Amino acid sequence: MALIVQKYGGTSVANPERIKNVARRIARFKEQGHQLIVVLSAMSGETNKLIALAKEMQPTPDPRELDAVVSTGEQVTIGLLAMGLKAIGVDAKSYTGGQVKVLTDDTFTKARILSIDDANIRADLDAGRVVIVAGFQGVDAAGNITTLGRGGSDTSAVALAAALKADECQIYTDVDGVYTTDPRIVPEAKKLDSVTFEEMLEMASLGSKVLQIRSVEFAGKYKVKLRVLSSFQDEGEGTLITVEEDKNMEQPIISGIAFNRDEAKLTILGVPDTPGIAYQILGEIAAANIDVDMIIQNVAHDGGADFSFTVSRGDFAKAQGILESVRQRLGAREVTVDDKICKVSAVGVGMRSHPGVASKMFKALADEGINIKMISTSEIKISVVIDEKYLELAVRVLHRVFNLDQ
Ligand code: ADP
Ligand code: ASP
Ligand code: MG
């Protein structure tokens, strides 16, 4: 008997028929003698709908009230699944985040999990019930409903698996594992049998939204055995997220190509090249709670410096306003912006021992006439910022030159 946490994403619970399918799958695991905690997302499209409703009331919805609204999607699916299980003779009980007590901080819309009370869940498991928990949500110390950021049900599942020391956390979705790149963009993409935490972390943070980045961080930190599988197939081992040492085979140099359209670039031209200037520019951006991704500083012939950075498009307008006021204060020449960009990245732990990956990547892009606007690298990834219109071409070309089609 194993304790398994299973998470089903939005497409897997998109309508009553699919929820009944999930119920049948759970019943089969139960028959094998396993204990099950099931974490659900809202029906696909539902969270977007709820956000749109909120925006009709207030262009920038109050964050506490927004969480009260968007958390309702998951409350529907957990109740429906509990009914679906009871209908086929499987005892089950649904819980909201607050009922479990998934305690979070009070950062509405992107709260962090602080602790999980396992008492109710343990009691139900011991009584032979399937426990169903609403993903994506928690409650702060004052009892307010909070949510964990888009895609947050993955994190709910991994956090529950860590808190209850589950044997495995299975993420069921609409693809049968983690692929070399998004199969929606490159049909030739191949499923990976395993991928290391480090690679998955990079891929998630660079835009592969198959797993929410925080769920991967959590799983790495608490050593949760994490697997991505399809809820539409009965066979298959999916993709196991592993620690590097466990992989005894020769590493491929590149494991995957990730991309992110959610990027915008801002540049301030002609700032004085003096100590503290980066802080003066980015300090205000950080104070406004805006995450900065890539940063470049160039010193020009006249001794002035040009400073560029990227932010997510949701923060673009706000960042532009701040940068304009910084420009006036510093007496800089000009602010230029570009929100028609994207970031494409090659990720692989094999890069550590193989030089020449960057030049291969740059040549492949140059051969297609794609201009690189920014570059950033780490030990296991190379990212470039390019025009958004070249995104699909760049992903396909890189997928091919690094032999990921084979
Ligand atoms: P869920 O609703 O189940 O959480 P998501 O839409 O969040 O599902 O994540 C699954 C989707 O992630 C897939 O349909 C796929 O298009 C996309 N995706 C992006 N990059 C990858 C990748 N490298 N491997 C697999 N899927 C990917
Ligand atoms: N329903 C939430 C979202 O769409 C959380 C999730 O699906 O993981 O972002
Ligand atoms: Mg998801």
Ends apart, CA distance between termini: 38 Å
Largest sheet, strands/sense/barrel: 8 strands, mixed
Q: What is the mean pLDDT?
A: 95
CATH class of the largest domain: Alpha Beta
Bound molecules: adenosine-5'-diphosphate, aspartic acid, magnesium ion
The share of residues in extended strands comes to: 25-35%
Query: Oligomer, anyone?
Result: single chain
Helix content: 25-40%
User: Which class do the helix and strand fractions yield?
Assistant: alpha/beta
Q: What are the low-pLDDT stretches, counting only 5+ consecutive residues below 50?
A: none
Topology:
Blueprint: E1 3-8, H1 16-31, E2 35-40, H2 46-57, H3 63-70, H4 72-87, E3 92-95, H5 97-100, E4 102-104, E5 113-116, H6 119-126, E6 130-134, E7 137-139, E8 145-147, H7 153-163, E9 168-173, E10 194-196, H8 197-205, H9 213-221, E11 226-230, E12 239-242, E13 256-272, H10 277-287, E14 295-299, E15 304-311, H11 316-330, E16 334-347, H12 357-367, E17 374-378, E18 381-387, H13 391-401
Parallel strand pairs: 1-2, 1-9, 2-6, 3-6, 9-11, 10-12
Antiparallel strand pairs: 4-5, 7-8, 11-12, 13-15, 13-16, 14-15, 16-18, 17-18
Helix pairs in contact: 1-4, 7-9, 8-9, 10-11, 12-13
The structure holds adenosine-5'-diphosphate, aspartic acid and magnesium ion.
Your description of this structure?
With 406 residues, the chain is α/β, with parallel strands linked by helices. It has two domains: 3-174, Acetylglutamate kinase-like (Carbamate kinase); 257-401, VC0802-like (2-Layer Sandwich). Helix content is 35%, strand content 27%. The protein contains 13 helices and 18 strands. The two termini are 38 Å apart. It binds adenosine-5'-diphosphate, aspartic acid (ASP) and magnesium ion (MG). Magnesium ion is lined by residues 9, 151, 154.
